[in-house]
Design a protein that fits this description.
It is a single chain. By secondary structure, the protein is α+β, with helices and mostly antiparallel strands. It has helices at 2-8, 51-64, 77-91, 95-99, 137-140, 151-176, 183-187, 257-262, 317-326; strands at residues 43-45, 67-71, 111-114, 128-133, 192-200, 212-215, 221-226, 233-237, 240-243, 251-255, 272-274, 282-290, 296-297, 315-316. The strands form three sheets. An eight-stranded mixed β-sheet has the order 1-2-10-7-12-5-4-3. Strands 6-11-8-9 form a four-stranded antiparallel β-sheet, with no helix packed on it. The radius of gyration is 19 Å and the shape is globular. The relative contact order is 0.17. The mean pLDDT is 93.
Length: 340
């Protein structure tokens, strides 16, 4: 059984040729030659003394791109380096050590897995990932990997800092919509938090596959720590895929489906994807803030008027998340199922 699990993971071998189960049909390939490489996604300096300008820049970015980078975000650069280093160390562990954590059950709160949803896919994605639930930390940390020895301490420190950053961003996003600063945090209830530590190995034929195909995020807000040496994230903007070029020390923020619904469609949870390359492995650490399962979600009442009626009905996050996971990643935007 352990050997079989090891065999499931991409990170346990070097791949000279492309296994057939990763090859996308012609019409679904990434067309890497068409990706716009020089475009810029907005960068917001959170240390700017001009609060109104920060709020306005965040509001513009949420409206036009659904994505932005933040600099001077208050998370220690040394901690960020440690997070990437310990994540790399984890994926370099011996195969039998990693296999202990392997599971293909999407309901499992702590698991090492591969692709997206191995049980139902016909074509797999070129990634392994460690999924961690992170809040409340004391519930979950005991079951996190004990190897590397510093893993629990470094990652739990980072989780705490990222949560605080997420709440600061909520405040600015609320204000940019003309709502009270505390609105989003209050509306989302006691929020869950989880993390995906993504590992994309070198790939013999990157133009035939994805690290992750196009998708939107079902949660409220995603904070992504990217490998600053290797690009791979791409965002759909005005019908074109644009490469997000990593900026040292920056974190990439994207609006999830729940903030698109809460903003009554003003802000955009946009399609994004991860591509792979043949020269180097790539890592990323995605942190997700998610509404409480039972809380009622939908457009903020203040944003629903005669001129802009509610675009979405109200629903619970539990209902939304089940729908999201029962589909394929690249089907229509899941929010379409919740339109009024």
């Amino acid at each position: 059984m352990a050997a079989e699990r090891e065999h499931q993971l991409l990170s346990t071998a070097v791949h000279e040729t492309m296994p057939g189960k990763y090859v996308r049909p012609e019409s679904q390939r990434p067309r890497l030659d068409l990706v716009v490489s020089g475009a810029r996604i907005p960068v917001v300096d959170l240390a700017s003394p001009d609060r109104a300008a920060v709020v306005s820049a965040i509001g513009d970015a949420c409206h036009t791109h659904g994505f932005f980078q933040v600099v001077n975000h208050g998370i220690d650069p040394a901690l960020i380096l440690s997070v990437m280093e310990v994540a790399r160390e984890f994926f370099r562990l011996p195969a039998e050590e990693k296999a202990k954590l392997y599971s293909d059950d999407p309901a499992k709160k702590i698991r090492l897995s591969t692709s997206f949803n191995v049980r139902k896919e016909t074509v797999h994605n070129w990634r392994d990932y460690l999924r961690l639930h992170c809040y409340p930390l004391e519930h979950f940390v005991p079951d996190w990997p004990s190897n590397p020895p510093s893993f629990k301490e470094i990652i739990s420190t980072y989780c705490t800092e990222v949560r605080e950053l997420g709440f600061r961003l909520y405040e600015a996003i609320s204000e940019s919509l003309g709502l009270e600063g505390s609105y989003i945090k209050k509306t989302m209830g006691e929020q869950e938090q989880h993390m995906a530590v993504n590992y994309y190995p070198q790939c013999p034929e990157p133009e035939l596959t994805y690290g992750l195909p196009a998708h939107t995020d079902p949660n409220a807000l995603t904070i992504l720590l990217m490998d600053d040496q290797v690009a791979g994230l791409q965002v759909l903007n005005d019908g074109k895929w644009i490469a997000v070029n990593p900026q040292p020390g920056a974190l990439v923020i994207n609006i999830g489906d729940q903030l698109q619904a809460l903003s009554n469609g003003r802000y955009r949870s946009v399609w994004h994807r991860a591509v792979v390359n043949s020269d180097r492995e790539r890592m990323s650490v995605a942190s997700f803030l998610c509404p409480c399962n039972s809380v009622e979600l939908g457009p903020a009442k203040k944003l629903v008027t005669d001129d802009s009626p509610a675009v979405y009905r109200s629903y619970t996050y539990d209902e939304y998340y089940k729908k999201f996971w029962s589909r394929n990643l690249d089907q229509e935007h899941c929010l379409e199922l919740f339109r009024t």
